Amino acid sequence: MYLSRFLSLHALWVTVSSVMQHYPSVWGHYDVCKTQIYTEEGKIWDYMACQPEARDMIKYVKVTLDPPDITCGDPPETFCAMGNPYMCNNECDATTNELAHPPELMFDLEGRHPSTFWQSTTWKDYPKPLQVNITLSWNKTIELTDNIVITFESGRPDQMILEKSLDYGRTWQPYQYYATDCLDGFHMDPKSVKDLSQHTVLEIICTEEYSTGYMTNSKIIHFEIKDRFAFFAGPRLHNMASLYGQLDTTKKLRDFFTITDLRIRLLRPATGEIYVDEQHLARYFYAISDIRVYGRCKCNLHATGCKEENKKLFCECEHNTTGPDCGKCKKNYQGRPWSPGSYLPIPKGTANICIPSISSIGNCECFGHSNRCSYIELLNTVICVSCKHNTRGQHCELCRLGYFRNASAELDDENVCIDCNCNPFGSVHDRCNDTGFCECKEGTSGTKCDKCLLGYIWHSLGCQPNVCDKELLQCQNGGTCLKNMRCQCPPAYTGILCEKLKCERDPGGCSQNSGNVAVLHGPLLPLTALLGVTGLLVF
Ligand SMILES: *[C@@H]1O[C@H](CO)[C@@H](O)[C@H](O)[C@H]1NC(C)=O
Ligand SMILES: *[C@@H]1O[C@H](CO)[C@@H](O)[C@H](O)[C@H]1NC(C)=O
Ligand SMILES: *[C@@H]1O[C@H](CO)[C@@H](O)[C@H](O)[C@H]1NC(C)=O
Ligand SMILES: *[C@@H]1O[C@H](CO)[C@@H](O)[C@H](O)[C@H]1NC(C)=O
Ligand SMILES: *[C@@H]1O[C@H](CO)[C@@H](O)[C@H](O)[C@H]1NC(C)=O
Max alpha carbon distance in the chain (Å)? Predict the structure, then answer.
């Protein structure tokens, strides 16, 4: 089974694991993709990059022919035998099983005699070109692992283009041109894959190798995947690690071998001669007995399995990834941006598993308040770095101290956090609760703690209790209450509410003081106050 797994990583890993036996712990990251295999040393773990085995992809293909009525036999017609242009009584009849050549026969099991094949109508409309597009669609991204091989039952076409699509048939690129005369057919210099190198491996060439005529025994056309691999892995593909190293780092190279669709554009049938024999147009047609496409499901190195459901392929994604190609992280596992796994094991490569995001906040990363995340290995978690817009928290999902949540703004709104704006003199600190209420000092009120309760008065340093007022704390003995902060007392009185006689406290100095006061301040004092003092002295 392993021998048949061409280009499986098996060979590579056996080599690598013997080299790297002294790093057993690092393999832990590849746990999901290890399998037990038997070697001379007994049963061992075989560590491999997470990818499904290569297999025959033709089983899963959907074929479309253009024009749709190009298959022979409707109405029935006769054609000339291969290699014998003068035996022209062969029959194609779509209504008779033995004489029909429908497209399915390109994909059935061969190895029987006579082989079964699809066949086009003959070139009876010459000189109008006889052209056919054969489109093979997988509706799944596939990585080719072996040559594409097309076996013609007729001669190989004079002109043909193999095209590929990477986007389910929306756009197409040529893969290779095939012609008996590249310059004449496509204005290209003929080349063969052997003329390429590591540096030119992605070049699209026109080859004359597979178009040599009508009469030869060669029936096969290749698109040479292995020869291209060999530029990196050596002629017998011994050094696959080198190829995988390149594939890990060069997306263009990876994409070159990746397809979702193939299109065989048959442009001119085999004629074998310079001139078309107009007397025997039934000699010219296309017939294909077999198409072989070997590859594996592209799962971005996040799956070892690829299952078939209703003739369609799906990666069985691991590493908490999802999508037909495991091309994204599962919901709630978007703790860091998705990336493909790598072919090479740790320490050179990594599985790049998807890691959980904080489930209560869903899969949003930093709500747009930071564009930088940092992975904390120890906690197996990521945090947003330098949250902006007055946010904080692992996902910038909280407001900084001194700010509160704007109830009418979404979490990703720039205005999500509002300044508490607590009055610095009226508040205990600069923080507020979720509705913006600050914590007030005694005697202080208001959302922002900038107002005073009854019985308190705002000073430069906040609310202070009233010293005097018109109700409970009236100034006595004719004193006046100044701005609730103090009583202005008549000269003979003192005390906070002017409740004390000055002489009472200091009888010795009473007359002297009062006299001085009277003399010094006499003109300024109200007459009643002056009289009162004098009267007091009299008694
Ligand atoms: C084949 O496909 C090409 C586009 O890739 C198109 O231009 C051409 O007309 C098609 N030929 C036929 C016979 O449908
Ligand atoms: C291709 O596959 C997707 C699922 O991945 C499916 O929804 C879609 O219908 C398929 N398209 C065709 C043409 O089969
Ligand atoms: C995927 O997530 C689950 C649940 O958190 C976890 O148990 C599992 O180990 C994860 N798988 C990988 C390969 O990290
Ligand atoms: C709260 O958010 C809404 C929506 O963005 C915005 O219009 C409003 O100005 C914000 N309120 C404050 C006080 O910033
Ligand atoms: C914030 O404080 C105010 C005043 O104490 C209170 O009425 C309100 O319910 C508090 N809001 C929250 C969300 O705790």
Answer: 162
Which three-class secondary structure state does DSSP give residue 288?
A: strand
> Rounded to whole angstroms, how far apart are CA atoms 351 and 353?
5
Q: Report the share of the chain in percent with pLDDT over 90.
A: 52
Cβ contact 441:448 at 8 Å: no
Res 523: pLDDT = 36
The identity of residue 151, as a single letter, is T
Q: Where in the chain is the domain with CATH 2.170.300.10?
A: 358-419
Tell whether pTM > 0.85: no
Rounded to an integer, what distance in angstroms lies between the CA atom of residue 173 and that of residue 43? 46
Identify the residue whose C-alpha is closest to ligand 3 atom 5: 356
* Residue 67 Cβ < 6 Å to ligand 1: yes
pLDDT tens by residue, 479-494: 999 988 899 999 999 9
DSSP state at residue 535: H
- Residue-wise pLDDT for 293-323, tens only, equals 999 999 999 998 999 988 889 999 988 899 9
Q: Which residue type does 456 have?
A: Y
Return the residue whose CA atom lies nearest to atom 6 of ligand 3: 320
> One-letter amino acid identity for 216?
T
Encode pLDDT of 176-199 as tens digits. Answer: 999 999 999 999 999 999 999 999
In order, the DSSP letters of 414-434 are TTSEEE----TTTEEEEEE-T
Where do the CATH 2.60.120.260 domains begin and end in the chain? 55-297
526-532 average pLDDT score? 37
pLDDT digits (tens, 9 = 90+) for 116-159: 999 999 999 999 999 999 999 999 999 999 999 999 988 899 99
Bridge partners for 493 per DSSP: 501
Class assignment of domain 358-419?
mainly beta
Supply angle C-alpha 186, 190, 193, rounded to 5: 120
Pocket test for ligand 2, best of 311, 312, 317, 326 (most atoms within 8 A of CB): 312
The answer to whether the CB of 115 falls within 8 A of the CB of 104 is no
Cα(173) to centroid(ligand 1), Å: 13
Residues with CB under 6 A from ligand 4: 406, 408-409, 413, 415, 418
d(CA 524, CA 510): 19
Asked whether the predicted pLDDT for residue 364 surpasses 80, the reply is: no
Closest C-alpha to 357, from 382, 337, 335, 375: 335
Q: Does the pLDDT at position 389 exceed 70?
A: yes
Query: How much distance in Å is there from the Cα of 228 to the middle of ligand 1?
Result: 28
CATH architecture of 55-297: Sandwich (2.60)
